[in-house]
Specification:
The strands form 6 sheets. Strands 3-2-1-4-5-6 form a 6-stranded mixed beta sheet. 48% of the residues lie in helices and 13% in strands. It is an alpha/beta fold.
Length: 877
C-alpha cells in the first residue's frame, strides 16, 4: 500500500523547541526546533517509507474560529521569537527535501490536514498518516486508512493510532473526539466546554449517548427524569442544560474543517521528484547539523530505493572524501618534502598504522610502524601536521622528537576557533570547516588534515587566536604527553583499606536514612526518593520539577532543603560517599598499570574556558569535602627517595579580578599581603580587620568567589546562610566598596553584547551567541559566561604558561631526570622531586610560576611537600 504523510509542522516545531535544550548554528542562530523537527522527519522517513508527503503550517493572523470566538486560544502564552525565527529554516529543510508546503489564510494547519485527508481517504491502495506533536487530529482517524503518528515522550518515542488504537486509549471513536471536547473543553485552545465536566464524566456521557446532540435530545425529553440514565444525576442534568450553547459551540470550535479550498494532488506530494540532496546537505552544514548530515544520505538512499527501486542521484552533492590507492613504504622510501600530514591508528601500546601525505594527494602507509620507524619517517619533513597529536607523541620513545619540527594540530585549532562544540573528531571538524564528509577509511585522514590546515590557520589568524595557539596550546602538547606517560605512583594497600571503610560508611548512612524515612527504599532511585521526601515525610520547599512534572531530587535542589529535615543532609553525605566509593575507590586498582602508577589522560579541548580536564581516571574532581576524600589522596605517593611537591597559585582568580577590574581596594589588599576575605568583610561590615569574625569572613569568601560565577541574591543567601534581605544589603555594600568590580561586570556584559564574544587577557576567545537572546534564562547564562570567561580563562592560560615554563626550565638545566611534572589540578601543579634537591627546586619553580605574567597584583604560589598527596607540609620561602 502506498503511503501519504501529512505533517502538522507547527505542532512539531513547538514540541521540538520545548523538548530540546538550546542549540545554535555556527553563526549563532538558534536551531533546536529545526534540529528536532528534522530528526523526527528522518525517523518518519526511515520508519514509514512514504511515497508522498505534504507539510502544513498555520498562517499568521486570525482564523474563522477567532472571528466566531474572540477568546479562542487567548490564554496561550506567545512563543518566544527564537521559535518563530526557526520556522523559515524548517520550511527551507522541507523544500530541500522536496516536500510541498500547504497553508491557507483563515484556517489552521489541522484544517488543511483534514481537507487533504478527506480527499484521499477513499483513494484505493493509499494510507494517509498524519504526523503531529499533539492529538487534536485524532478525530480524522478512519479505520486503518487514516492514522496518526505522534510523539509520546521527547522527540524519539513515537506511537501510531488507528481507529482501534483511539478507542483503546480514549474509550471513544475518532469521530467522537469533538463531542468529547465540546463537554470537557480544551484549556490549551481556551475552548470552554461545560464548566464542571471533567475527562471521566465527558467520556462516560459520550459512551452512553454517542454525541453532544444526542445527549441534549435525551436531556430535553420531558420523560428523561423517569428514564434509566444512571450516569446523569439531576444536578448534572441541570449543569448540562444550563450550558447547552457552550457545549455545542465548543464542539464546533473543536471540529476540524475538511473543505478548505486547496489545489492538492498526489503528484505534487511526490517528494522524491523534487528532492535536492545538495541543497539539503548545504543547509545541514550551515546549521551545524553534523550528526543529521551523516544520517541523511543513508536514510534517503534507503527510502528512495525501497519505494521506487531507483538509486538516488548524487550529482551536485559533496561526495565523501576517500583515499585512492595507498602505497606501503619503509622510512627511507618516503618522498621528501617540506610538509607532511600524518594520521595514525593506535592502540594502548603501539602504532598499528601510520598514513602520510606530502602533497595532499598521494597517501603512503609506513611498513612496520614501530615508534623508532615513525620518528625516522617524520624526520624527513620540516613541518608535521596532525589531528589530535598527543596520543601519537605518547607512544614515541621521546615525546620531543617531533617537536624539533614545526608541528600543527587541527584538533586544537578547531577547538580554539569554535570552543563550545561537544567534540572535535576529524570527521566532524572536516565536515564543518571543509564542507565535506569523510569516509570511513583511515587512509583518507591525512588528505583531510592537509586540506584543513590552511582553512583553520586562516580562521585562527582572522580571530587573532594565533598567539594562543602557537604560544600556549601547541607548546603544551608534549608537556601533557610526558605527564601522561609518567603517571603517578599509587599505594594499592591504601585503596583496599579505603574500600572497606567506604563500604561500611555507605551502609551506615543507608541505615540512618531508612530509619528517618521509616521504611527501606532505593536511595539511588529519584522517583522513590521523591516519594519519601515529598509524600511520606511531607517536606515542603520550592524545588524545580523534572520534565515529567515530578519534584527534582538533584543535589542543588536538595541543598535548598537542608534546614527542612535532617534526612536531607544524610542523603547528600550518602551521595558523596557513594560517588567516592563507586567512581574512584572501586575501579581504581584496575587503572593501576604494571609500573605501579596510574596514568590519567588530559583533555586539552574539553572546556570552552581553556581549563584542562582529565579522565581514566579523573584526578581533577576527587571529592575532598569528606575525610575519606582527603584520605583518598594519601594513596598517591612518591617513589622511594623522592617527594611529592605541590605548587598552588593562591587565590589566582581573585587576583585576576583585582587586576582586570582595576579595583583599587582589592589591588591594595593583595599588594599588602592582606587576607582578601578578611579585608572584604572589613569593608562591607565597616569594621577593623581585627574585629571581623569567622562567620563574617566566611560570608565574604562566599561572595568573593560567587561574583566570578554570577551569584545573585538568592544564591548568596543560600550559600552564606543569611536572609534574602541581608544578602541584598551585603551585595549592595560589596559593590559600593568594590566599585571597580561593579564597573568591570557591567563593562564586560556591555562588550559581550556589542561584540558577541569575550576574551581572556591573552586573547582566548569565547563566542556568546545567546547574549542577545529574548529567552531570559539563555541571556542570563550568557551574561554569567561573559563575566566568568575572562577571569577563569585567563587563570587557565597562566597555569598552562607556567607548565610550559617549568618544563622548559627543567630541560634547559638538565634537572628533568630528577624532577617530574605529574599532575595539574585546577591551579595546582604536582611534581615528583628527588628529596635531596627539594628546597632548591621549590625555590626555582615557585619563582618561575610567580613571574609567568605581569599583573598589577603579585602572583603568589603556596608550596607543600610530602610522601603522599594528602599529608603535605608547607615549604618555606
Amino acid at each position: 500500500m502506498r503511503k501519504l504523510i501529512l505533517i502538522d509542522s507547527n505542532a512539531l516545531v513547538h514540541r521540538a523547541f520545548h523538548a530540546l535544550p538550546p542549540l545554535t548554528a555556527p553563526d549563532g542562530r538558534m536551531t533546536n526546533a529545526v534540529y528536532g523537527f528534522t530528526s523526527v522527519l528522518l525517523k518518519m522517513l526511515n520508519d514509514l517509507k512514504p511515497d508522498f508527503i505534504a507539510a502544513t503550517f498555520d498562517m499568521a493572523g486570525p482564523t474563522f474560529r477567532h472571528e466566531e470566538y474572540e477568546e479562542y486560544k487567548a490564554t496561550r502564552v506567545k512563543a518566544p521569537d527564537e521559535l518563530y525565527a526557526q520556522i523559515p529554516l524548517v520550511k527551507d529543510i522541507l523544500t530541500a527535501m522536496g516536500i510541498p508546503i500547504f497553508e491557507h489564510a483563515g484556517f489552521e494547519a489541522d484544517d488543511v490536514i483534514g481537507t487533504i485527508a478527506q480527499q484521499t481517504q477513499e483513494l484505493p491502495d493509499l494510507q494517509t498518516i498524519i504526523v503531529t506533536g499533539d492529538l487534536d487530529t485524532l478525530q480524522l482517524v478512519h479505520g486503518k486508512k487514516v492514522v496518526v503518528f505522534t510523539l509520546r515522550k521527547g522527540m524519539t518515542d513515537t506511537v501510531t493510532y488507528d481507529e482501534s488504537g483511539v478507542h483503546e486509549r480514549y474509550g471513544m471513536s475518532p469521530g467522537q473526539v469533538p463531542d468529547f471536547k465540546g463537554l470537557k473543553g480544551d484549556p490549551s485552545d481556551n475552548i470552554p466546554g461545560v464548566k464542571g465536566i471533567g475527562e471521566k464524566t465527558a467520556v462516560s456521557l459520550i459512551q452512553e449517548f454517542g454525541s453532544v446532540e444526542a445527549l441534549y435530545t435525551a436531556l430535553e425529553r420531558p420523560s428523561f427524569a423517569q428514564e434509566a440514565a444512571p450516569k446523569v444525576t439531576a444536578k448534572l442534568r441541570t449543569k448540562l442544560l444550563d450550558q447547552k450553547d457552550s457545549a455545542l459551540f465548543s464542539k464546533k470550535l473543536a471540529t476540524i474543517i475538511r473543505d478548505v479550498p486547496l489545489a492538492f494532488t498526489l503528484e505534487t506530494a511526490d517528494w522524491r521528484k523534487n528532492l535536492d540532496l545538495a541543497k539539503l546537505e548545504s543547509l545541514c552544514r550551515d546549521l551545524g547539523f553534523y550528526s543529521l548530515a551523516k544520517r541523511i544520505p543513508t536514510v534517503l538512499h534507503k527510502v528512495v530505493a525501497e519505494t521506487t527501486g531507483q538509486v538516488l542521484d548524487l550529482d551536485g552533492t559533496a561526495q565523501p572524501l576517500s583515499s585512492g590507492s595507498v602505497q606501503t613504504l619503509g622510512p627511507d622510501e618516503f618522498p621528501t618534502g617540506d610538509v607532511a600530514a600524518v594520521a595514525a591508528e593506535l592502540d594502548d601500546e603501539a602504532v598499528r598504522h601510520l598514513y602520510l601525505t606530502a602533497d595532499g594527494q598521494e597517501v603512503y602507509e609506513l611498513k612496520d610502524p614501530t615508534p623508532e620507524r615513525v620518528v625516522l619517517t617524520l624526520a624527513k619533513y620540516r613541518t608535521v601536521i596532525a589531528h589530535d597529536l598527543k596520543p601519537l607523541l605518547r607512544l614515541l620513545p621521546d615525546t620531543r622528537a617531533l617537536m624539533s619540527h614545526v608541528v600543527e594540530d587541527s584538533d586544537i585549532a578547531a577547538w580554539l576557533v569554535a570552543p563550545d562544540q561537544r567534540e572535535y573528531g576529524l570527521d566532524r571538524v572536516y565536515y564543518e570547516f571543509a564542507a565535506q564528509a569523510l569516509d570511513a577509511s583511515p587512509a583518507a585522514w591525512p588528505v583531510a588534515i592537509w586540506r584543513l590546515h590552511p582553512i583553520l590557520q586562516e580562521k585562527l589568524r582572522s580571530l587573532k587566536l594565533l598567539p594562543v595557539y602557537a604560544d600556549i596550546e601547541m607548546p603544551l602538547v608534549p608537556v601533557l604527553a610526558d605527564m601522561e606517560k609518567r603517571g603517578i605512583r599509587v599505594d594499592t594497600r591504601t585503596i583496599d583499606d579505603l574500600l572497606t571503610i567506604a563500604s561500611r560508611e555507605v551502609t551506615d548512612l543507608e541505615q540512618k536514612i531508612w530509619k528517618l524515612a521509616g521504611t527501606e527504599f532505593n536511595i539511588n532511585s529519584p522517583s522513590q526518593l521523591a516519594d519519601i521526601l515529598f509524600n511520606r515525610l511531607a517536606i515542603r520547599g520550592r524545588v524545580r520539577r523534572t520534565s515529567g512534572g515530578a519534584p527534582s531530587t538533584a543535589a542543588p535542589e536538595l541543598e535548598k532543603l537542608r534546614e527542612e529535615h535532617p534526612i536531607i543532609d544524610l542523603i547528600l553525605q550518602y551521595r558523596e560517599m557513594s560517588k567516592l566509593k563507586t567512581t574512584y575507590i572501586e575501579p581504581f586498582p584496575s587503572l593501576v598499570r604494571a609500573d605501579g602508577r596510574v596514568h590519567t589522560t588530559y583533555n586539552q579541548t574539553g572546556t570552552a574556558t581553556g581549563r584542562l580536564s582529565s579522565s581514566d581516571p579523573n584526578l581533577q574532581n576527587i571529592p575532598t569535602r569528606t575525610e575519606l576524600g582527603q584520605r583518598f589522596r594519601a594513596a598517591f605517593v612518591a617513589d622511594p627517595g623522592w617527594k611529592l611537591l605541590s605548587l598552588d597559585y593562591s587565590q589566582l582568580e581573585l587576583r585576576l579580578v583585582a587586576h582586570m577590574a582595576q579595583d583599587r581596594t582589592m589591588i591594595e589588599a593583595f599588594r599588602n599581603g592582606e587576607d582578601i576575605h578578611t579585608r572584604t568583610a572589613s569593608e562591607v561590615f565597616g569594621l577593623a580587620p581585627a574585629q571581623v569574625t569567622k562567620d563574617m569572613r566566611r560570608q565574604a569568601k562566599v561572595l568573593n568567589f560567587g561574583i566570578i560565577y554570577g551569584m545573585g541574591v538568592l544564591g548568596f543567601a543560600r550559600a552564606a546562610g543569611v536572609t534574602r534581605d541581608a544578602a541584598k544589603r551585603f551585595i549592595d555594600e560589596y559593590f559600593a566598596r568594590f566599585a571597580g568590580v561593579s564597573r568591570y561586570i557591567e563593562r564586560t556584559k556591555h562588550e559581550a553584547y556589542e561584540r558577541g564574544f569575550v576574551e581572556t587577557l591573552l586573547g582566548r576567545r569565547r563566542p556568546l551567541p545567546d547574549i542577545a537572546s529574548r529567552i531570559p534564562q539563555l541571556a542570563a547564562a550568557a551574561e554569567r559566561m561573559a563575566v566568568n570567561h575572562p577571569i577563569q580563562g585567563t587563570g587557565a592560560d597562566l597555569v598552562k604558561l607556567a607548565m610550559i615554563a617549568v618544563d622548559r626550565h627543567l630541560r634547559d638545566t638538565g634537572q628533568d631526570a630528577r624532577v617530574r611534572m605529574l599532575l595539574q589540578v585546577h591551579d595546582e601543579l604536582v611534581l615528583e622531586v628527588r628529596a635531596d634537591i627539594l628546597d632548591e627546586v621549590t625555590a626555582e619553580i615557585r619563582s618561575i610560576m610567580e613571574s609567568v605574567h605581569a599583573l598589577d597584583v603579585p602572583l603568589i604560589v603556596d608550596a607543600k611537600s610530602g610522601e603522599n598527596w594528602a599529608e603535605m607540609t608547607p615549604v618555606p620561602r
